[in-house]
């Protein structure tokens, strides 16, 4: 169990067994024990939490600034230290979550080298190409993007280091400067993706823009504009197959226009690649065993 997980559990007033591995997720639900997920699965810890304990946990996680986080609560999440994020549920009132009764904490971690299996596909004639990474939630898209950004920024055997700009809307990719995204990387935090991509193209002269979880029409428009302005875009989205991605309205036009030259489908586990396709959906790599 790493130090970030220990700090989070301490804030939640939870005693964790020493045999826990690399923790990926911590969940609190009113009336239920705390749930911890590591590489071996879920484990229940302690007695059921009361409503008051859930609210106190949310306050502790934000260093007692919970209700100063209006904008984040409107989006149903809280940005935590070190690139961690807590999704929250409860009572929706006045345009945001109040009376929090559930918290899902996703622990950020940098896994150096987890993108090694796909880096050779991210270049054409020595220059980075646009790529979209797909998977259901929780299979390591954000972790993979971090290592892609780091390697593209520092340079690899397939290409020299380039200027990378990260649109980090929820402060997950860079962890507010605590996670290594490379020597030539600039990070714009807390700004909506569509506005951030437009701003970065205008002001930072990026060769590559990295952003997480495309989900809105405005995101797609901004990606299209950034690519047409000459920047490669490395992004992620929720989908469990290439067909499912084409079924999402936000992604369909981008894929039909072949704006992404590579499409990477993840299997279970950080850095495990199920398939890599070209912009037309033709397989370039398919794993023999998942």
- Give the CA-based shape: globular
Proportion in helices: 25-40%
Radius of gyration (CA) equals: 19 Å
What is the subunit organization of this protein?
single chain
Mean pLDDT: 92
- Secondary structure class reads alpha/beta
Distance between the termini: 26 Å
Largest pleated sheet? 8 strands, mixed
How are the strands of the biggest sheet laid out side by side?
A: 13-12-14-15-9-16-17-18
Percentage of residues in strands: 25-35%
The residue ranges in which pLDDT falls below 50 over 5 or more consecutive positions are none
Helix and strand arrangement:
Layout (H helix, E strand, L loop, with lengths): L2 H9 L13 E5 L4 E5 L2 E5 L5 H11 L8 H5 L2 E3 L5 E9 L2 E11 L9 H4 L3 E2 L2 E2 L2 E5 L5 H14 E2 L2 E2 L3 E5 L16 E5 L3 H11 L4 E4 L5 H12 L3 E7 L3 H5 L2 H8 L5 E5 L6 E6 L4 E4 L4
Written overview of the protein:
The longest helix has 14 residues. A hairpin with a 2-residue loop joins strand 7 and strand 8. Helix 7 packs parallel to helix 9. 39% of the residues are buried. It is built from 9 helices and 18 strands. The protein is globular. The strands form 4 sheets. An 8-stranded mixed beta sheet has the order 13-12-14-15-9-16-17-18, sandwiched between helices. By secondary structure, the chain is of the alpha/beta class.
Quick synopsis:
The chain contains nine helices and 18 strands. It has 290 residues and is α/β, with parallel strands linked by helices.
Feature tags:
single chain, 18 strands, 290 residues, alpha/beta, globular, eight-stranded mixed β-sheet
């Amino acid at each position: 169990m790493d130090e970030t997980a220990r700090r989070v559990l301490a804030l939640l007033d939870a005693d964790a067994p020493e045999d826990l591995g690399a923790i990926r997720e911590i969940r609190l639900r009113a009336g239920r024990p705390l749930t911890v997920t590591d590489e071996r699965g879920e484990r229940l810890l302690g007695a059921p939490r009361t409503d008051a304990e859930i609210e106190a946990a949310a306050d502790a996680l934000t260093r007692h600034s919970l209700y100063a986080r209006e904008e984040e609560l409107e989006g149903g999440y809280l940005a935590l230290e070190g690139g961690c994020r807590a999704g929250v549920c409860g009572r929706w009132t006045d345009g945001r979550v109040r009376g929090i009764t559930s918290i899902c904490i996703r622990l950020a971690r940098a896994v150096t080298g987890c993108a090694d299996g796909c880096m050779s596909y991210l270049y054409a004639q020595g220059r980075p190409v646009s790529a979209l990474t797909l998977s259901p939630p929780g299979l390591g898209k954000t972790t993979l993007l971090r290592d892609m950004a780091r390697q593209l920024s520092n340079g690899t055997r397939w290409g020299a280091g380039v200027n990378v700009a990260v649109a980090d809307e929820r402060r997950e990719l860079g962890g507010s400067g605590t996670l290594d995204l490379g020597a030539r990387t600039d990070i714009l935090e807390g700004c909506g993706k569509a506005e951030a991509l437009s701003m970065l193209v205008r002001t930072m002269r990026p060769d590559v823009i990295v952003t997480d979880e495309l989900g809105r029409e405005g995101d797609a428009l901004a990606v299209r504009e950034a690519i047409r302005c000459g920047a490669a875009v490395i992004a992620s989205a929720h989908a469990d197959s290439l067909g499912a991605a084409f079924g999402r309205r936000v992604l369909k036009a981008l894929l039909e226009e072949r704006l992404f030259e590579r499409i990477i489908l993840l299997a279970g586990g950080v850095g495990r690649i199920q398939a890599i396709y070209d912009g037309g959906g033709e397989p370039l790599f398919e794993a023999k065993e998942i």
